[in-house]
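Bug report

Summary: structure tokens for Arginine/agmatine antiporter differ between web form and batch submission.
Environment: batch mode, default settings.
Steps: 1) Submit the sequence below via batch. 2) Compare with the web form result.

Sequence submitted:
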Amino acid sequence: MTIEVQAPSQSQPVKGLGLVACTALVVGNMIGSGIFLLPASLAPFGPIALGGWVLTSLGALVLAIIFGRLSRTVTKPGGPYAYSQEAFGDFAGFLIAWGYWIALWTGNAAVAVALVGYLGFLVPAIGESQMYSLAAALIAIWGLTLVNIRGVEEAGAVQIVTTVLKLVPLVLIAVLGLFWIDSANFSPANQSEMSNVAAISAAAALTLWAYLGLESATVPSGDVIEPEKTIPRATIIGVLIAAVVYISVTAVSLGVVPAAQLAGSAAPLADVASVMFGSVGGSLVAIGAVISTFGTLNGFTLLSGQVPYGAALDRVFPEALGRISKFGTPANALILSNLLASVLIVMNFAQGLVAAFNFIILLAVMASLLPYAFCAVAEVLIRANGGEVLRGAELAKVAVLGLLGFTYSIWALIGSGAQTVLLGFVLLLLGVPIHVWLRWSQVRDRVETQVTFSDGR
């Protein structure tokens, strides 16, 4: 069974995304701010944090396989939102769109914080002043918001340049850093006060941030050549590439710089490069990190406007978010999303750069885990809704994958911590009255239209 629906749009999409382009989309959207600041977040756990990376990579690979299968079953654009709506109905579709949107604007806040950390390495005055750091984060967010309001073409030009330059400092550290590793930095393996299981779980919750975006190739499925083949392959290849980069870079970071020093760094990979290549190397990596996080921030800003805009066109979000500016861009959606991101940054900046980053990424992860959990078990329902009942080996395959993906999502959710889960749950619940109001408004308009026609007016 394959469900094909033409998504509403104001222009006919251009076909042409092949395997290489889709793989680049997946890798580009995953590898961004996370790996440039996560070594500092993971340092308090010590080398045992690598266990968190391994488990998260395996969980991400399971989710990649699930999304690949779903992309063959539901070919309409939208990714997690489209799959959840097909499986569970309109209300679930709304909740997933709402959670995905929350993940985007909270992610914007986290990327801006990471950007400022490396900017402070290059310009010490910014790193030494909380006021300057906060101002730099807000300027970055609103500068790119204006770029995206001006037009997608301008945003796309920014994205191409930053994506090309993104992987250079990471590859240099991962490969050449092996010669600077001090084995003494790997002892003890668990440098936290938690049990081994608790430490790995907590580390895994942080590392999942770096895999958000693994479903990227499923969202523009209407633009993909042979999506039923290309999307699954691109998603799995992209996750594997990211896993190799993440694990190798983190291992080198923990081996080159002592954990206590790494944990307090606002620019951990720049510090690693400084040990390896001196101040020039540190500056080059910091420049690469600024370029990478700036590009990621641009990409998140683009999505933070497009997701609520698309949902508004489907009448899932308020109509005002579906209006476009004179430049043909969803200005209302962009402004609202990044206003919320700015508020989140201001509220958490007093905790310090790394602490603020940790809290915000956990919130973004929590908002993303609900869509992942729904999608993990969606295929059986989608097929059943289409009149197809799975049996035998095919049912076993789907059931095992779904159980693994769902269990992983719940485990990662627990690892996010009680405070993060509580706040994330509250943010999700705040969407319920909006859904009720939207449905009531739509029914009211329909009834009033019927009354008008029946009265002959």
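Above is the batch result. After comparison, the two runs are identical; trailing whitespace caused the diff. The longest helix spans residues 279-313. The chain has one domain: 19-454.
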